[in-house]
Amino acid sequence: MRVAMIGTGYVGLVSGVCFSDFGHEVVCVDKDAGKVAKLKAGEVPIFEPGLDFMMNSNVAAGRLSFTTDLKSAVASADAVFIAVGTPTRRGDGHADLTYVYAAAEEIADAIDGFTVVVTKSTVPVGTNREVERVIKARRADAPFNVASNPEFLREGAAIEDFMRPDRVVVGCEDDKAREVMRELYRPLSLRETPIVFTGLETAEMIKYAANAFLATKITFINEIADLCEKVGADVQDVARGIGLDGRIGGKFLHPGPGYGGSCFPKDTLALVKTAEQYGSPVRIVETVVAVNDARKLAMADKIEAAAGGSVAGKRVAILGVTFKPNTDDMRESPSLYILPALLEKGADIVVSDPEGKREGEALLKGVSWEGGAYDAAKGADVLVLLTEWNHFRALDLRHVRDLMKGDVMVDLRNVYTPKEAARAGFKYFSVGRPAEGV
């Protein structure tokens, strides 16, 4: 089938590349001519493991191309995906749908023959109805149908998630559109991947409900971790003990400095605002948002306490600043809250992150950067493990301790055990476990 993907951000680029790998003919469209030129030259603007190889392979095979010409891409497409950004709107917390509706207007002008217009962007309930209205208002004779196809891609594992998903959710109310969507995802039928067909509003709600539930699970175990520290329990064992219950499951029960990224912060807030708009508040999600926001700042206080009550004039080595490993995404990363707070407290901060420097340099003013963990550790009074990159999971802790001036290690991802850190000579602090040191 012929696919036009409007937007070459994270969701649009990954989805377009993966659809082309299914064998479909895909044209990815973006207004940024410079970005399109780089894509044509084989440069991937984001870090996602395996994406560069898959993209260039499909370009070479003639199944994938890039353009700024939306009209020609849409005119020849069976399905047009809207995959533009829906950032939090300044001032009120609602999702900003400006780019979605602008794309809908341009699509309306370009449609030539029956086309399924598919919203891939994460959008609040009612958005797809409005997309339909926008297109009809712009061009009443346009032969089209609207579908909602929310994405469930984890950054760092997006290709695997697209090619081997738990399920595919499609909201549409027309048989012809349903068949187009079935054909697009037909390659997944070999794995018997469930395709959940629903109405438009239901598909929109599934996306938000899923992300809010996962954010709630993360926030729950973070609060349990805080309680574990007070009572002397070990949150790692608690998480395992409850995660083995089939009704709960072990995923997303990993305590840390709070969730970040492009989805959970934005989507939980948008769900809260939608619920307020319809007079049906979601109190649990409201609390999740508030607790997570407060947690990020509380981690700076935790580091300060571990450093003896003050970080003023002390060198603090930070390992990892992206919101999670295997991505260069800094959006709403805990580091954007923790590091500025430490700087205000007078800390001298040095950072090591395998992929975070490109975005991080502009976002984290006043810090210095080193290439690797050992370089960052040299002369440090305090070592903080903030993002659990594989690069940081098997450090020679004795060597790290020898390189440092001080002996404090704050492991906000519980990568190491208190005993192994203590054996290396550290005063070790983690999340939800008793402190241990020498």
* Number of contiguous helices: 17
The SS-based structural class is alpha/beta
What's the CATH first level of the largest domain? Alpha Beta
Domain count: the total is 2
Which strand order do you get reading across the main beta sheet? Answer: 3-2-1-4-5-6
Low-confidence stretches: none
Q: Roughly what percent helix?
A: 40-55%
Q: What is the correct CATH architecture of the largest domain? A: 3-Layer(aba) Sandwich
Mean pLDDT: 96
Backbone shape: elongated
Q: Give a short account of the largest sheet.
A: 6 strands, parallel
The CA-CA distance between the termini, in Å, is 64 Å
Give the total of beta strands: 14
CATH superfamily of the largest domain: NAD(P)-binding Rossmann-like Domain
Radius of gyration: 24 Å
**What name is given to the CATH topology of the largest domain?**
Rossmann fold
> Strand content of the residues, in percent?
5-15%
Lay out the secondary structure:
Elements: E1 2-6, H1 10-22, E2 25-29, H2 33-40, H3 51-60, E3 64-67, H4 70-75, E4 79-82, H5 98-110, E5 115-119, H6 127-138, E6 144-148, H7 158-163, E7 168-171, H8 175-184, E8 195-198, H9 200-231, H10 235-243, H11 264-277, H12 283-306, E9 315-319, H13 335-344, E10 348-352, H14 357-363, E11 368-369, H15 373-377, E12 382-385, H16 397-403, E13 408-411, H17 418-423, E14 427-429
Parallel strand pairs: 1-2, 1-4, 2-3, 4-5, 5-6, 7-8, 9-10, 9-12, 10-11, 12-13, 13-14
Helix pairs in contact: 1-3, 5-6, 9-11, 9-12, 11-12, 12-13
